[in-house]
Amino acid sequence: MRILIACDSFKDALPAPAVCQAIARGVARAHPDAAITQMPLSDGGEGVLEVLGHALSLSTVTLTVKDALGRPVEAKYGLSTDGKTAVVEMAQASGLEHLSQAERDPLRTSTYGTGQLLADASARGASHALLAIGGSATNDGGVGAAAALGWQFLDAAGARIEPVGGNLKNIARIIPAPRMPFARMDVLCDVTNPLYGPHGASWVYGRQKGGTDQSLAALDDALRHLAQVMEAETGRKGLAETPGAGAAGGLGYGAMAFMNAHLRRGIDVVMERAGFDQAVAAATDLIITGEGRIDGQSAQGKLISGVCAHAGKVPVVALCGKLDASEAEVKAIGLKAVYVINDKERPLAEMLAETAENLERTAGRIAM
């Protein structure tokens, strides 16, 4: 029996490689003669650097850059063996993970550190960037990252503004950087929100970043203002309405506007780079996938939906920590079956600590 194990991380419990390893142990115990292929995956958000590092044998570059509040933070990105492709995960520098609950305020945060990572990769000779934009602490429309790459944002008096979310409203003039950092940039994005409006960056995602009704209204207006100034300065229209422009506090928009980036579904890029289709074509009999939580949204651009879409006629089963999807929703995702690894509800900390053990046990049971 040939089994492909292709899983995302179980958030707050195990990274994707460790998830695949635990499942493989369980399958191997039940089927010692099974041919098992492990393929850690990501939908393009946090964890993509580790996953693509595993798939592409990336070398790691570590820098001290600015976090979302401008403080020094150690962050890393990956370079391909020929040095031409850089894989940058914005959460490394500008992620919510670096801020305590009390520090979260989208009026004060910036993507400047992410721009520093991109600038370093460009200076080292990379011509292609893959930028994963999940887990942001920001709502600055990508102005911070652009500033780190040489763009200037000036107020009505001609003074440079600090590139944080709360200052976007003061932008009166935009001066482009001397050159684009990369010949091509692909932004890994799994949401379809526009830049502003009721379904835009601020109102949909700003509250988890510390926004209030008052600040979110101001930020939404500021993102609209940014787009208007940018259109007036460059003549490029329609970017703010592009699906995904509102991702990562508007970094999706900023990457398009300031870096000529292309927005792509993260799972499609990761599966392409990891060689998923080739692995399926190698006479796979079963695919085991999984993520921490499966719900009705798992059919909308998430990893499991991508696995099912590329599986062809090969059956796909999934393991998860929590199942909040109906039988009809599971079928819509394309799964043959879903198995919850926790036998009973217990304190979350206990379940997280036992994730590897429970994955191994459940995989062994379903493979029998």
Any overview of this molecule?
By secondary structure, the chain is α/β, with parallel strands linked by helices. It is built from 14 helices and 13 strands. It has helices at about 15-30, 50-55, 90-95, 110-125, 145-150, 200-205, 215-235, 245-260, 265-275, 275-280, 305-310, 325-335, 350-355, 355-365; strands at about 1-5, 35-40, 60-65, 70-80, 85-90, 130, 150-155, 175, 185-190, 260-265, 285-295, 315-325, 335-340. The strands form three sheets. A six-stranded mixed β-sheet has the order 3-4-5-6-9-10, sandwiched between helices. A five-stranded parallel β-sheet has the order 2-1-11-12-13, with helices on both faces. Helix 1 runs parallel beside helix 14. The chain is elongated. The model has no long low-confidence stretch (mean pLDDT about 95).
Features:
368 residues, alpha/beta, five-stranded parallel beta sheet, 20% strand, six-stranded mixed beta sheet
Question: What's the gist of this structure?
Answer:
With 368 residues, this protein is an alpha/beta fold.
Net shape? elongated
Stretches where pLDDT is under 50 for at least 5 consecutive residues are: none
End-to-end gap: 12 Å
Instruction: State the secondary-structure class.
Output: alpha/beta
Give the neighbour order of strands across the main sheet.
3-4-5-6-9-10
Question: What is the averaged pLDDT score?
Answer: 93
Number of helices: 14
By DSSP, the count of extended strands is 13
- Strand share of the residues? 15-25%
Instruction: Report the order of strands and helices.
Output: EHEHEEEHHEHEEEHHHEHHEHEHEHH
What's the gyration radius in Å?
A: 21 Å
Q: Give the helix level as a range of percent.
A: 25-40%
Q: Strand count, sense and closure of the main sheet?
A: 6 strands, mixed
